[in-house]
Amino acid sequence: xxxxxxxxxxxxxxxxxxxxxxxxxxxxxxxxxxxxxxxxxxxxxxxxxxxxxxxxxxxxxxxxxxxxxxxxxxxxxxxxxxxxxxxxxxxxxxxxxxxxxxxxxxxxxxxxxxxxxxxxxxxxxxxxxxxxxxxxxxxxxxxxxxxxxxxxxxxxxxxxxxxxxxxxxxxxxxxxxxxxxxxxxxxxxxxxxxxxxxxxxxxxxxxxxxxxxxxxxxxxxxxxxxxxxxxxxxxxxxxxxxxxxxxxxxxxxxxxxxxxxxxxxxxxxxxxxxxxxxxxxxxxxxxxxxxxxxxxxxxxxxxxxxxxxxxxxxxxxxxxxxxxxxxxxxxxxxxxxxxxxxxxxxxxxxxxxxxxxxxxxxxx
Length: 364
Prior knowledge:
Elements: H1 23-31, H2 42-45, E1 50-55, E2 61-68, H3 71-90, E3 100-108, E4 116-122, E5 128-135, H4 138-150, E6 157-159, E7 163-167, E8 172-173, H5 174-180, H6 189-205, E9 216-222, E10 227-233, H7 257-266, H8 269-289, H9 291-303, H10 309-323, H11 334-363
Antiparallel strand pairs: 1-2, 2-3, 3-4, 4-5, 5-7, 6-7, 8-9, 9-10
């Protein structure tokens, strides 16, 4: 890992512009079953009658507002929102939705997408689940799809004309994990450090930015002998947008200082580099399994403008210097930069394989 000095304290303070879904990306979404006609529009959800602050169990303002609709509006809206939940969970089978109801709709003005959070409750057992309705944004869609294809996590989401529907990502928010869980003696410290290194590498390779602590979750799963840990991104707004190279490395955010210090205490440099190489190899295998889909998605990114020319120029120079590879300097779009990054990973993996084959041949 590089020098972890935090240089990105409050870098992402300005709201990123929302980018429309281009025709090539729209065709991609239709082909792979990501686009559906929705009974609810974003503008319709904005037509609430009242809103009140939502506080957590300790009385702190969550920055979310619980919104209340007029009774005649709510009757239809509740039905449509449970139908969207059925689409996310059972591909549209509504045979079970009679015992589901929407308990609460929350709205957040913090962040770019101004999301609505829908809480769905099972009336038989009071079990709760959530999903989100956000403004449609090409950057976020590319981030979700790349997460689906290049990470160990499957992402369930759908797109309509002006909205993006996302399933809730389950886990402990990173900032809460640092505050309440990082010192837990039951956690396997080496496994946690390994996951942090792999997450850092994965974000950098696929150019997912702004992964400060509150933008990812830690999924802790008890196993029969130990505890399994996985770190998952939950905010994809800054996919391939920033021009700052270090913006794509979570280790450089001040919010993640405690996690960086934790990794440095648990791992030496050779071990950290081993885990980086492991993540590169896994991404290479994932690309092989869905090669045509990955190539088509990145080709769509190459056609779309999801950042400014100035940011593309800044990032391509940073990547060219980091990899010591001038191929980046020929890139004009963020999609081209991402493809070049993946090409380098592929070339490295194939070279390692060739070297190992040569070693085996010599031994034989």
